Amino acid sequence: MIPAADMAGPTLLLAGGDPLHHNYDYPIISLPNGYAILTNHIVMMLTVFVLMLWLLPRAARAISTGKTGTSHDYVTKGVFAHLIEVLCVFFRDDVAKPALGKNTDKFMPFLWTVFFFILFNNLLGMVPLLDATSLLFDGMINGTHEAAAHVESPAAGEGHGEVDAHAAGRDDASHGSGDHEAASLAGGVSEESHESHAMRLGPLVLFQDLTKEGTASHFHGIGGTATGNIAVTFSLALIAIIIIISSGIKSLGFGGFIDHLTLGTKFPLSVVIAFLECVGLVAKPFALMVRLFANMTAGHVMLASVLGFCSMAWNGVGPAGGIIISVPAIIFATIIGILEVLVAFIQAFVFTFLTAMFISLFQHQEHGHEAGHEHDHLHNHEYALGDAQMVAAH
Question: Nearest to residue 355, comparing CAs of 211, 263, 240?
């Protein structure tokens, strides 16, 4: 058993121990049969939900027009509100309107919600909450065990002389066993403190370790990247395809939607065309699901792999060699982390952009023609006025 003091350095590099550590969905509350009721990724999505309800209305109030009758009524208050306004206007005018035309305002609440939900999850997943909460838990367990050992040791020496006699007269075998027990006690975080018995909340199991045959608990920390879970991206893609199909049926009518799937061809060619179109309907949410999942997972795997060099060097060649290897690895990991922030924005944009494009495919053709004509008109008007006047107009 490694003492707690010796574990302090490598513990900070545990993020590199398992490249997929931050993508696992660890159970928090589950039934004894292993069915999870509350998991890490559910907690993260609920956290994002609360953040959106708190931050976005505040930004909306800062963006809204005032009532003083002066020019200050049209000035957005605050940097965060400016950022939200720029993103929302960009999506509405440059992403959704060219494709959706007159239907833009009808779909913008959904598209904005999808974008910010994915973006907040991507960014929150980069915060090392999983490692921080795990280290905090380990520190609490260490403090509890060390305090217990410090209190019990003097009392044992004063009140029970036979313990001292036994310690003085034990043979080599018992000496080795006693050293192992003492090291386990002094080490603080033992396997018993981390994963031996099941922690329960009534009939429910807390932090159930599903890798064990019996019912046991293991606290991995609370956090992680929800968008690195394919079940989450599948749910997002399923919601998107439901909106795509339902809005298409509402716009074209059921008969028009079926006619759209067959492209107006006659039997038997219409059957083949309809089959291929149905394959396309399945491929669209599949592309949304896999693209977001794969990109978010790949970023964490790369970061964990780079930090893994630090952990291996620390454990293999000692602290001196570990520092020599860790410094350039941490610098490189920092650069990758900055790139991950860009990827978080890009993946939220791509998912929302493709959703808007897929919705437009099943809208009435007149909308597409009018939207294209309106976009050309706005583009020419924008070119004529110039960038400065367009900024003032917005």
Answer: 240
Hey, what amino acid is at 192? E
Widest CA span of the chain, in angstroms?
A: 99
d(CA 349, CA 94): 12
User: Could you please report the per-residue DSSP string of 47-76?
Assistant: HHHHHHHHHHHHHHHHHS--SSSSGGGGSP
- Please report, in angstroms and rounded to a whole number, the separation of the first and last CA atoms in the chain: 65
Which residues, other chains included, contact 250 with Cβ-Cβ below 8 Å and sequence gap of 6+? none
Q: Is 139 helix (H, G, I), strand (E, B) or coil?
A: helix
The DSSP 8-state label assigned to residue 208 in this structure reads B
300 vs 12, 155, 254, CA distance in Å? 16, 49, 44
pLDDT in tens, 42-68: 999 999 999 999 999 988 888 887 776
Q: Could you tell me how far CA 244 lies from the centroid of its own chain?
A: 25
How many Å is the Cα radius of gyration of the chain? 29
Cα–Cα distance, 16 to 307 (Å, whole number): 5
* CA pair distance 71, 175, nearest whole angstrom: 84
Degrees (nearest 5) of the Cα angle 187, 191, 194? Answer: 100
In angstroms, the CA 248 to CA 256 distance is 9
pLDDT at residue 194, rounded to an integer: 46
Q: What is the pTM of this model?
A: 0.73
Burial 329-367 (b: 16+ CB within 10 A, else e): bbeebeebeeebeebbeebbbbbbbbbbbbbbebbbeeb
User: Out of 75-84, 137-146, 355-364, which region has the weakest mean confidence (pLDDT)?
Assistant: 137-146
CA–CA dist 3, 184 (Å, integer): 8
β partners of residue 38: 29
Rounded-to-integer distance, Cα 119 and Cα 345, Å: 6
Name, in order, each residue with C-beta under 8 angstroms of 98's C-beta and a sequence gap of 6 or more: 371, 372, 375
Round to whole Å and give the CA distance between 42 and 26. Answer: 10
350 vs 290: CA distance, rounded Å: 12
